[in-house]
């Protein structure tokens, strides 16, 4: 383990820097501590500001260090994203740019000190990535541009990343950009948007003649700039996945993680989905309440309650290639620790060419061995990510590249009380334990929405977007995509 120390100064004040191979401790920089928020008042009497710990007294971990460099002006510059509450899981992070003067006699020592640290900090990650940044100016109700400029750009600059920034100008622009991008000119394509632009980028890549190679060569960097941000939350958790600076750290320090994508066919269309396919009362709650967007998230709750109290159900003819159907064994198989090497191997497989489905086309009969379920259901919801939104841990056993789609199914006939309790417990994922919830892992499926009552409108949503309520089929392609990830898995869900 490397142990190095360096004496520096901030003004006249002596500062001691110590590096132990895993973290950098800075002692003596008393002005670096984050200032507490405005003092509080109580009945007009000002209260003393709350005590704030000095994060520099803790070693700044390698993962949090962005850049350490000694320059010609005898200055040592340190940039780091430091957790505000280091002991807390999913703590927000703050960007610190610290500058210390070094005695010119120690120039050689300072150069070695900084290069030793940098070689550890970027031990197996590329330093100074070349980023193609796509910003949806309308993402997150128009906040994405501001988020990028105030929170993300300074972090990428501190880490010496090269940025080529482009605003998406219309619906579908993300598809065209990904179709045309020079995959050798960048190390990652970063989206500052919701899941909509990510969906477009993935589909643009997969329309290219070199689809497989392109999508792996330019891993996605995901910055939450939308309203939902399901992929970001699923990778980092409900708080960190919504923290632009923490997700920027994931882009800088993340390694490519392979993740599965679903090939979806309906009519003469085919595209790739990385989130969900939805039919039944949850699709209704999302799509039929679009006109109530002004209400925010409340609109979907109102939609759901309408459907539950109205006893609504939907008919389907479906068939599944089921791999696992026992909830207990699915829960037992869910790994507490995840083996990253799996994903590295998958990423190294860089065959080019387009993605060909292995299941027969929709026009042909259901393959032998599939389970046919022609029934009335309340909820049919498949997903490749555990969280579909904050507070919606719908598929807690989802894995990024197990080659399987998780299906949650609630059939007709469940009581109103049981259905309400499912939606009451979905925030923690414990709804899957309810007797009315069936949970499967499938490789592929086919679904035909059946309209029994002409007055009832059937809704189908794929990755949150309307799809015609026509027959469609889905096949998962294992490890097809690549996304930059700090720890190489979806966030562990312990339920
Ligand atoms: N300049 C633009 N004008 C109009 N639409 C755009 C523009 N840029 C992107 N879009 C479209 O906006 C849609 C939604 O984008 P995105 O998911 O990024 O944001 P959001 O709606 O805030 O987030 P969420 O999907 O999480 O609700 C995408 O389908 C994309 O095609």
UniProtKB/TrEMBL annotation:
Residues 126-268 form the DAGKc domain. PROSITE patterns: DAGK (PS50146). It comes from the Eukaryota. The keyword Magnesium does not apply. The keyword Nucleotide-binding applies. InterPro entries: ATP-NAD_kinase_N (IPR017438), Diacylglycerol_kinase_cat_dom (IPR001206), Lipid_Phosphate_FormReg (IPR050187), NAD/diacylglycerol_kinase_sf (IPR016064), YegS/DAGK_C (IPR045540). Keywords: ATP-binding, Kinase, Nucleotide-binding, Transferase. It holds the Pfam family DAGK_cat. PANTHER family: ACYLGLYCEROL KINASE, MITOCHONDRIAL, SPHINGOSINE KINASE. GO terms for cellular component: cytoplasm; membrane. GO terms for molecular function: ATP binding; lipid kinase activity. This is DAGKc domain-containing protein. It comes from Umbelopsis ramanniana AG. GO terms for biological process: sphingosine biosynthetic process.
């Amino acid at each position: 383990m490397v142990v190095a120390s360096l004496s520096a100064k901030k003004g006249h004040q002596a500062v001691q820097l110590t590096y132990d191979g895993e973290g950098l401790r800075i002692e003596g920089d008393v002005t670096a501590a984050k200032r507490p928020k405005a003092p509080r008042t109580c009945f007009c009497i000002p209260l003393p500001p709350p005590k704030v710990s000095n994060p520099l007294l803790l070693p700044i971990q390698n993962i949090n260090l962005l850049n350490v460099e000694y320059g010609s002006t005898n200055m040592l510059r340190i940039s780091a994203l430091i957790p505000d509450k280091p002991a807390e899981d999913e703590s927000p992070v703050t960007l610190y740019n610290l500058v210390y003067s070094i005695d010119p006699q120690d120039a050689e020592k300072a150069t070695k000190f900084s290069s030793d640290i940098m070689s550890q900090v970027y031990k197996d990650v590329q330093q100074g990535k070349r980023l193609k940044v796509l910003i949806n100016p309308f993402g997150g109700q128009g906040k994405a541009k501001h988020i990028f400029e105030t929170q993300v750009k300074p972090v990428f600059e501190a880490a010496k990343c090269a940025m080529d920034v482009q605003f998406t100008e219309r619906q579908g622009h993300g598809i065209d950009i990904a179709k045309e991008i020079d995959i050798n000119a960048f190390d990652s394509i970063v989206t500052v948007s919701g899941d909509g632009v990510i969906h477009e980028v993935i589909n643009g890549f997969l329309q290219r003649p070199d689809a497989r190679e392109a999508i792996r060569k330019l891993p996605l960097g995901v910055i939450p700039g939308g309203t939902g941000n399901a992929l970001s939350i699923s990778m980092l958790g409900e708080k960190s996945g919504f923290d632009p600076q923490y997700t920027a750290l994931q882009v800088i320090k993340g390694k490519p993680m392979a993740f599965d994508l679903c090939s979806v066919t309906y009519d003469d269309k085919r595209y790739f989905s990385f989130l969900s396919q939805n039919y039944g009362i949850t699709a209704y709650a999302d799509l039929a309440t679009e006109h109530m967007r002004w209400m925010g998230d409340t609109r979907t709750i109102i939609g759901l309650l309408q459907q539950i109290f109205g006893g609504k159900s939907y008919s389907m003819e479906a068939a599944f290639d089921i791999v696992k159907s026992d909830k207990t064994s699915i829960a037992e198989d869910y790994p507490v620790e995840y083996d990253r090497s799996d994903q590295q191997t998958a990423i190294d497989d860089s065959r080019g060419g387009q993605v060909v489905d292995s299941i027969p086309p929709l026009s042909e009969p259901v393959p032998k061995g599939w389970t046919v379920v022609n029934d009335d259901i309340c909820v049919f919801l498949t997903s490749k990510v555990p969280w579909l939104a904050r507070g919606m841990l719908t598929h807690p056993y989802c894995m990024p590249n197990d080659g399987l789609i998780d299906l949650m199914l609630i059939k007709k006939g469940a009581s109103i009380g049981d259905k309400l309790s499912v939606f009451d417990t979905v925030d923690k994922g414990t709804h899957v334990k309810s007797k009315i919830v069936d949970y499967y892992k499938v490789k592929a499926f086919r679904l035909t929405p059946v309209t029994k009552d002409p007055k009832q409108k059937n809704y189908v949503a794929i990755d949150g977007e309307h799809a015609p309520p026509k027959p469609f089929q889905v096949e998962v392609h294992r490890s097809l995509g690549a996304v930059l990830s700090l720890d190489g898995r979806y966030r562990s869900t312990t339920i």
